[in-house]
Amino acid sequence: MARSPYATSSTSRRCDTVGSICCSTTPRSLAYTATKHAITGLTKSTALDGRPYDIACGQIDIGNAATDLTSATAEGVPQADGSVRAEARMRVEDVASAVVYMASLPLDSNVATITVMATKMPFVGRG
Questions:
Q1: Rounded Cα–Cα distance for residues 35 and 23 (Å)
Q2: CA-to-CA distance for 59 and 39, rounded, in angstroms?
Q3: Going by C-beta distance under 8 Å and a sequence separation of 6 or more, which residues neighbour residue 37?
Q4: CA 11 – CA 116 distance, rounded (Å)
Q5: Which of 5, 34, 65, 94 is buried deepest, with most CB atoms within 10 A?
């Protein structure tokens, strides 16, 4: 059997990727959406292909963490219905807590996907 590109001399056997919920809700985001769906596919393939090597792989999808990158979100951004509205944001420390949780699991447990988002973000139920 050929050596897997995932097998290394490192003792770390966990790979956590960063997706996004933006790609399911934001208009005019074709390129961004394509790249995030690619990350989801790579995450799932790595989780499957990494099993024989005790490699765990999961994905965190982040929605509106309060960073400089999302500052416009608080002012107003295009919505799926064509309107422009401000969106709720969450503390970036809450995202970090989720990442630490994923990374802290033993290798016989894994978070396949997790979504961390501002509670009042217009995602769940948005048409």
A1: 9
A2: 9
A3: 23
A4: 28
A5: 65
pTM of the model: 0.80
Distance in angstroms between the alpha carbons of the first and the last residue of the chain = 48
Contact by Cβ (8 Å): 58, 103: no
Read off the tokens for 73. 């979100």
What six digits make up the tokens of 63?
Answer: 């929605």
Query: Quick check: helix, strand or coil at residue 24?
Result: helix
- Listed in sequence order, the residues at least 6 apart from 30 whose beta carbon sits closer than 8 Å to its beta carbon are none
One digit per residue, pLDDT tens: the chain, 127 residues?
344 455 555 566 888 888 887 766 677 778 888 888 899 999 999 999 999 988 999 999 998 899 998 899 899 988 878 889 999 999 999 999 999 999 999 988 999 999 999 988 887 655 3
Q: In this structure, what token pair is assigned to residue 88? A: 């709720």
Structural contact between residues 77 and 85, judged by C-beta atoms closer than 8 angstroms: yes
